[in-house]
Each structure stands twice: as C-alpha cells, then as structure tokens.
Amino acid sequence: MNRATSVVIVLLLAALGIGATYLAQRSSAPRIAAEQRAIDSRRLLDLLPADSYDNQPLEQPLRLDTAVLANSTLQGGYLATKAGQPTIVLLRSQSMGYAGSIDLLIAIAVNGKLVAVKTLRQSETPGLGARIADWPNAWLNDFAGRSRNEPADNRWALKKDQGEFDQIAGATITSRTVINAIHDALRYFDEHRQQLIGDTSHE
Fold first, then answer.
1. Segments of the chain scoring below 50 in pLDDT
2. Closest by alpha carbon to 62, among 190, 201, 184?
3. Spatial CB neighbours of 54, under 8 Å, sequence gap ≥ 6
C-alpha cells in the first residue's frame, strides 16, 4: 500500500468517525434536552406538594404581562393543574433587597392561600440575608397558609415595625423586601384571580 492510499484511508476513517459522532449527538440531543427540562422542573417545582398537580406547570405559562406592583415586579407565572382543574398559580417576583435584586417563585393556591415561596436568585450578604436562598427554608415556611388579608394589610410587616413576622437574624432589609413581595403577589392574585386561573387552557 503506497503512502497516498494510506492517507486516503485515514481521511475516510476520520470522516466516518466525525459523521458517526455527529449523528450520535443529533440523536441524543432531544433526550438530553428533555432530561435538562426535567432537572429544571424539579428544581423550580419542589416547593409544590407532589399530589397538588399532574401537569407540567413550566410548560403552561400564564399570559401575564410584566406588572410593576407597590414593592415588587411580577415577571411571569405558571399554572399547576390536576385532572384539568387549576390548583396553584406560581408567580415569579423580583424586588430590591439589601445588596441587589431578589427573585422569588411564589406559589398561591386557587383559594388565595400561600402554598410556598422559594428564592430563585439573590445577592444578599453571605451568612445573613443570603440565608433567604436556603432550601428548605424555615423562615419562608412560616408564610404558608397566609393570604392577602391574613393577617390584615397593616400586619404584613416585621414585628419591629408593628407587624406579624419575625425577621431573618441580622437581615432586616432582606426580610422586609421578601415580606412585601409576598404580600404584593397575594394582593395581585386576589385582584386578578379570574384572569390568572382562567387565562390558560387546562386541557
């Protein structure tokens, strides 16, 4: 076998290898994307009780325009359903904390009661306000079961501000920010309940 023939064979084998790799990547791409969506879904939706929905909420976004509220901004939302009926609305909220923006995912049952809150992003002081990102989060869990008027509007505040709630130790501003954002979301849900629950097809 002469040198030219050897070079041609090597090039053909290389081309075949590249082609096989390309085809393998193309065929596995949908599976990889599906697995990544499942991971993202679990990370975002682990604040919901497992038996509270049977759809894929992240694939059922609400037609919700960005809404600037009194203390926060709503940047979208999702609808969880079970047997075709709405069960929980998830609202993505952003507000300014001590060191930067705090992004929350706020889950509200169709009866207007808070199910859970999860921090998606924050840049608060490590060891203080940054504890808002711990999961599970005992401080955030204390808000479960609350609604727009439970407690009354003027009690949606820290105890040091004559309100109902304790603060995260050493993180007064972070605590105020989150309390106000949660109350904003509950108020928005109460005022737009029909739009939020009825704005997405449940089939």
1. 199-203
2. 201
3. 81, 82, 83
Both tokens of 94, joined, read: 């952003």
DSSP state of 11: H
Tokens 């990547």 -> residue: 25
> What's this model's pTM, rounded to 2 decimal places?
0.79
Query: What is the pLDDT, as a whole number, of residue 30?
Result: 64
Q: Which two tokens stand for residue 167?
A: 């603060």
Give the SS3 label for residue 93: strand
Q: Is 146:114 a contact under the CB 8 Å cutoff?
A: yes
DSSP annotation of 165 reads: B
* 67-68, strands of its sheet edge to edge: 67-68, 73-82, 85-96, 101-109, 114-121
Polymer length of the chain = 203
Query: Which token pair is 84?
Result: 């075709």
